[in-house]
Design brief:
β3, α5 and β4 form a beta-alpha-beta unit. Helix content is 40%, strand content 16%. The protein is built from 18 helices and 15 strands. The chain has two domains: 120 residues, P-loop containing nucleotide triphosphate hydrolases (Rossmann fold, 3-Layer(aba) Sandwich), CATH 3.40.50; 271 residues, no CATH class. By secondary structure, the protein is α/β, with parallel strands linked by helices.
């Protein structure tokens, strides 16, 4: 079953402007399915997962380019970076838009080659797992999120409230299409296989891992720290590896689309701001699996409950930007007095503050730190508290409650748009 993706529209648009288009992201997020659906068999599909095809691509890239006629869709391009100079030559010779579509699940191994060979010729975009809007059939109707109270109020009246139990079931299952589109898919078996075949095979080799158990400990320690300030020393200690090793492994996880580092907002106007980023796992199901929660109920009642809810909200917001082909202007605020704001969306000179809380009854005090932003000499937009409430209501002069339902977009029966 194909689920419409928000990124479709941007891919079609970018392919009319650039000769090469590249979609990156972790394995199993749907890159190939998406591109195959859009091209409708009007491209020659070549997978570098095929050992014979890969051998040709690496051993004789010139012959590879002669054998496969364009336009081409080349899957897992990172396995044969030798092709990139030949793609460049073909592009410069023919001067056609949309000649090559590429996918890559390990861009950290590849992006140097892309930037050197295809500078100015390639549109690069990142795909994550299914968003809530995509899961509920509204992937075509997603705009980059801004907490505009009028738009939120108009939206919420069309949506079915998402309550605690359903939210944590969604978090526990995660966003990989295979889990969400196959009714009989065993969730634990999927993630077990995912860890074995991807995290421990592909990433372990590329990250130069000598001790597989140490790498798995590092993965689990990283997952346990989702939505927390990054502390490489602690991660290294828990995995029993050197700090430089932990830094290298984290870079691999980040570049491969498995973790996201949310940078702090920093200005020289005040020296009291924290400069350390926050770590988020990009799939909550994988995060819950690695931290060994056995059910949505135990996850909701456990120590990670608030952290994984925050992770879920941040990543859903991130998808509204990345799946529209845009950079997410996301930061967080924290000073040395431990005054923190979970998310700042900085757009067109205006900063929109967001708090994320596991509550159905948001209170004014939850937005109390928003006023701190006045000393940054920036325009402060309307903020919000994303939570489990059912209505968009004012909680202070410049902040409203924002139901999680807005991010998931499950429409009431009979409402089509």
């Amino acid at each position: 079953m194909y689920i419409e993706r928000t990124l479709e529209k941007f891919i079609i648009q970018a392919s009319k402007q650039f000769p090469v288009l590249m979609v990156t992201g972790a394995r199993q997020v749907g890159k190939t399915t998406l591109l195959k659906h859009i091209c409708e068999n009007k491209r020659t599909y070549v997978s570098l997962d095929d050992p014979l095809v890969l051998s040709l691509a690496k051993g004789d890239p010139a012959l590879f380019m002669q054998r496969f006629n364009g336009p081409l869709l080349i899957d897992e391009i990172q396995y044969a970076p030798e092709l990139l100079p030949y793609i460049k030559m073909a592009v410069d010779r023919d001067l056609k838009k949309g000649m090559f579509w590429l996918t890559g699940s390990q861009p950290f191994h590849l992006m140097k080659g892309v930037s050197e060979s295809l500078a100015g010729r390639v549109a690069v975009m990142q795909l994550l797992g299914l968003s809530g809007m995509e899961m509920f059939g509204n992937g075509h109707n997603v705009n980059p999120f801004i907490p505009d109270p009028e738009k939120l109020f108009a939206c919420i009246n069309k949506l079915t409230p998402i309550l605690l139990k359903e939210v944590f079931l969604t978090i526990f299952r995660g966003s990989f299409p295979a889990i969400l589109t196959m009714e009989n898919m065993d969730r634990d078996l999927f993630y077990s296989s995912y860890v074995q075949t991807y995290l421990q095979r592909d990433l372990r080799d590329l990250a130069k891992v000598g001790d597989e158990l140490a790498f798995l400990r590092f993965l689990r320690a990283s997952a346990a720290r989702t939505s927390q300030l990054l502390n490489l020393s602690e991660l290294a200690r828990d995995a029993d590896v050197a700090t430089n090793t932990a830094k290298s492994w984290l870079s691999v996880l980040q570049s491969s689309g498995l973790v996201y580092l949310l940078e702090p907002y920093y200005t020289n106007l005040t020296k009291r701001l924290i400069k350390t980023p926050k770590l988020y796992f990009l799939d909550t199901g994988l995060c819950a699996y690695l931290t060994e929660w056995s059910s949505p109920e135990t996850l909701e009642a456990g120590a990670m409950s608030g952290a994984i809810l925050e992770t879920f909200a941040i990543i859903e917001l991130l998808k509204t930007y990345w799946h529209n082909g845009k950079k997410a202007p996301f930061y967080f605020y924290r000073d040395k007095n431990k005054k923190e704001i979970d998310l700042l969306i900085v757009k067109d000179g205006t900063v929109y503050p967001i708090e994320i809380k596991k509550t159905a009854s948001p209170q004014k005090k939850m937005a109390r730190h928003f006023k701190i932003l006045e000393k940054l000499n920036m325009t402060i937009g309307h903020g919000g508290v994303i939570c489990l409430c059912e209505q968009v209501l004012p909680i202070s002069e410049n902040a409203s409650s924002i139901p999680l339902s807005v991010l998931l977009g499950k429409r009431k029966k009979g409402v089509t748009h």
